[in-house]
Amino acid sequence: MARILMVASEGLPFIKSGGLADVIGSLPFELTKKGHEVRVVLPLYLKIAQKYHEDFTHEASYHVNINYHEVPVIVYSQMVKDVKYYFIEHQGYFERDALYGYMDDGERFAYFQKAVIELLNQLDYWPQIMHSHDWHTGMIPVLCKEAHGFDERYRSIKHVYTIHNLAFQGNFGVEMLDSCLGLDYRLFDNGNVRYDGGISFMKSGILYADKVTTVSPTYSQEILTPQFGEHLEMVLNMRRNDLWGIVNGIDVEYWNPKQDPEIPYHYNRVNVAKAKKQNKLALQKEMGLHEDEDVLLVGVVSRLTWQKGFYLLLEQLDALCALPIQLVVLGSGESAIEEKMGQLQDGNRGKIAFYCGYNEALAHRIYAACDLFFMPSLFEPCGLSQLISMRYGTLPLVRETGGLKDTVIPYNEFEKTGTGFSFANYNSNEMMDVLRLAIEVYYHRPQDWKALVRFAMSQDVSWEKSAYTYCLLYKELHL
Ligand code: ADP
Ligand code: GLC
Known about the structure:
Layout: E1 3-7, H1 19-33, E2 37-43, H2 46-52, E3 57-66, E4 69-80, E5 83-89, H3 91-94, H4 105-123, E6 129-133, H5 140-147, H6 152-155, E7 158-163, E8 171-172, H7 176-179, H8 186-189, E9 194-195, E10 198-200, H9 201-208, E11 211-214, H10 217-222, H11 233-238, E12 243-245, H12 272-287, E13 296-304, H13 310-315, H14 317-321, E14 325-333, H15 335-347, E15 352-356, H16 360-369, E16 372-375, H17 385-391, E17 395-399, H18 402-407, E18 421-423, H19 428-444, H20 446-457, H21 464-478
Helix pairs in contact: 12-16
Bound molecules: adenosine-5'-diphosphate and alpha-D-glucopyranose (GLC).
């Protein structure tokens, strides 16, 4: 049993922009089930303040130094099941429309991390392990070891740093080292935090943590290469003996077609075929698609960015429109992709539907109603959507990269096994070939399709195994 403090920039049930929030919303609970005492710290964003503020308990008020000024910090908390969540309040920094993407993101998250470090002192709470996630928290181990290394209470904390997406690194100007983080320029001069003439939160986290993890075994190997390493492959290779790849799970209570309150027809492995048709008809009606329970309905729920492989799809629009399928896309992101999707819907009313934006309830209905889930990612550290799809008997069609490779078993037409379909190279012709194969199986080999659905739904996509692996990792550190 260990005292673990998770530090992250988003987490359910409070706030979500991507899969990180799902992980922070479920892993802590799984760890408490295994006997650990877990707490979580998040920034108090506008959306959280609007919805939850009244239920919060005040924990502490203090100051941290940013830009040579004493800046106030107020900390609140709330229990969710057995996990205590702390929220760092600073209206100017965090109560904005979006979570990220501002000019002062470096300063905002430097403030956040300094506030977290001082929180331990204020509460006289000393975790044995601090588990930080992604670039927003990469300086946590640096601050503990360099700025507070003289203090045994900080020095004895062990650090786990999890990379959810190496493409976002938190690289900022060197002046921030002193002005926002209060760290010595020596750390720039000796190269520890230096990156491309400035400083990198991500690189620093990788170098200073006692253990580094990422969210699938395949991605943990991919990032050691120039193709996936985002210029940090050398640093990662230095830490390769301490680098673990632990695949994510999903909250199988929340994502459960047997009792999901967002879907009209509930189902299990036995009645999936019938209920899926009913859910399909309901979704077709809702989204303005032709109502046809037999057509192959393909779904996408995703950030619409280059990472997710949408450029492959854009290369094949004409071919795609000619196929005997319907397509429903939920997502937002790069405006070029959003525009194309809008045009595609306008030119193919009844066949293609696009909802531009974020919609949790609609996501559930798409997972439940579709036959095939489309995820041709360029790279994918883990991916949760394919896990959710399999749980809902919706076969994922993925590119064999990162966590997609680790979690989707491709259709084997000889053994009649698999949990989905996959292709290897980032090539739109290969993608179309496997999509045509999926169409062939759906319409002409229904017994095979049925077997794949059953097998997909029986996969263990829960946190059980992975939470156990995190326990082993913590054990290596704090014993
Ligand atoms: P990433 O974190 O890279 O965006 P993941 O597959 O790990 O990808 O997680 C994405 C999560 O966000 C899934 O739970 C998915 O259902 C959800 N999601 C993505 N886009 C939307 C959207 N537009 N509306 C609702 N949920 C979404
Ligand atoms: C990142 C990755 C995604 C992963 C998620 C949670 O957003 O892009 O692949 O599933 O983090 O770890």
